[in-house]
UniProtKB/TrEMBL annotation:
<keyword id="KW-1003">Cell membrane</keyword>
<dbReference type="InterPro" id="IPR050171">
    <property type="entry name" value="MFS_Transporters"/>
</dbReference>
<dbReference type="InterPro" id="IPR011701">
    <property type="entry name" value="MFS"/>
</dbReference>
<keyword id="KW-0812">Transmembrane</keyword>
<keyword id="KW-1133">Transmembrane helix</keyword>
<dbReference type="GO" id="GO:0005886">
    <property type="term" value="C:plasma membrane"/>
</dbReference>
<dbReference type="GO" id="GO:0022857">
    <property type="term" value="F:transmembrane transporter activity"/>
</dbReference>
<feature type="transmembrane region" description="Helical">
    <location>
        <begin position="76"/>
        <end position="95"/>
    </location>
</feature>
<feature type="transmembrane region" description="Helical">
    <location>
        <begin position="116"/>
        <end position="136"/>
    </location>
</feature>
<keyword id="KW-0813">Transport</keyword>
<feature type="transmembrane region" description="Helical">
    <location>
        <begin position="351"/>
        <end position="368"/>
    </location>
</feature>
<feature type="transmembrane region" description="Helical">
    <location>
        <begin position="52"/>
        <end position="70"/>
    </location>
</feature>
<keyword id="KW-0472">Membrane</keyword>
<feature type="transmembrane region" description="Helical">
    <location>
        <begin position="287"/>
        <end position="309"/>
    </location>
</feature>
<dbReference type="InterPro" id="IPR020846">
    <property type="entry name" value="MFS_dom"/>
</dbReference>
<protein>
    <submittedName>
        <fullName>MFS transporter</fullName>
    </submittedName>
</protein>
<feature type="domain" description="Major facilitator superfamily (MFS) profile">
    <location>
        <begin position="1"/>
        <end position="375"/>
    </location>
</feature>
Amino acid sequence: MGFILPVNTIFITKNLRKSMVTAGFVLLIYSLLMLVGNFLGGQLFDRWSHRGTLLLGYGLSAASLCAITFNHTWPSYFIFLATGGLAMGIAYTGINSYTALLAEQSPRKSQTIFSRMYLAANVGIAVGSTFVGWIFQRSVFWTFALQTICFLSCFLIVLRLGAILESPAAKATADQPPFSSAPFLKLTRPQRIRNLILVASASLIIWSGYSQWDSNLSLYMLQNHFSLAQYSFLFSINAASLFIIQPLMNRLLGHFLTQLKSQITVGLLLMGSSFLLLPTATNYSQYIGSMLLLTIGESVTFPLIPALLNKFAQHENRGTYQSFYVIFSSLGRALGPYWGSLLITKASFTTLFYVIWVTMFLAAWGIGQVREKPAPDLN
């Protein structure tokens, strides 16, 4: 996915010669269909097949990207990209759901499992974003061909080694959930619904703002006379620093704040503050500072939100609960580039950055209202 998001706005506006609003609309449809895929992925994971869900998502993604590789003219690009969004949504929820299943079976390592999965996914996105600028400037064909190879490789890995996803150990907790009671919260139905609404709303807001880095920020930096390579390199900094920042932040905040919602709140305030550095950024070091502050905040926020959701899910609906986070995150990614481009067109980039700061603060307040008790000590 790190190859897909950063170049979309530039490819549509510069290569296909469409307006910025059109580029935002394309990303809106792409992300809305990813949202549909997220819902389908959760349902298929809970009701059909863990392995089959991933095979369907990866296979359809590879086919869509292969079509774009050989036909990236308008409107074919838009059609195949939208189809790919649906497929990637299925695969993404499938991975999150399997992570939740692993966390259920290893409750004492639940937070660590989500953190490591997030780190692996984010490093992949960041590495892709780093190289895509260099590759895109040299070959549009290889920009999309390499994406196809990545998803095809995932498909073959699951096809070859994915039997473990349907193993008796993976299914055992369906009849006997021995691990699920201790670390997870027993809430009433109204309390669960309230928590879901708060987490879903916060996820929508968070990703709506964060998605600006994957879309409109590329154009902002180009307008300020920075190169695409410099923009892409910020994602390398993001990936490299995560290896150091995430373990430190998890240990530091975990020592002082026992509740996941409190740690997430701190992360959100840091993420929002990072956007306050952008309106006055005149040299590259200021963009690096903004990215590092964003990285510190996201290293806490993104892995802990699905972990928080998993605390009040049941075994039979872990995939569905994870799909709530992924769906509203996808909706935020869908709306973010579009409303961001509209706000930039009607006002300015500066207005956009201040609006994001305010909305991140509101998301932090919402997460703070989630009902959560500290997990019991299992040592």
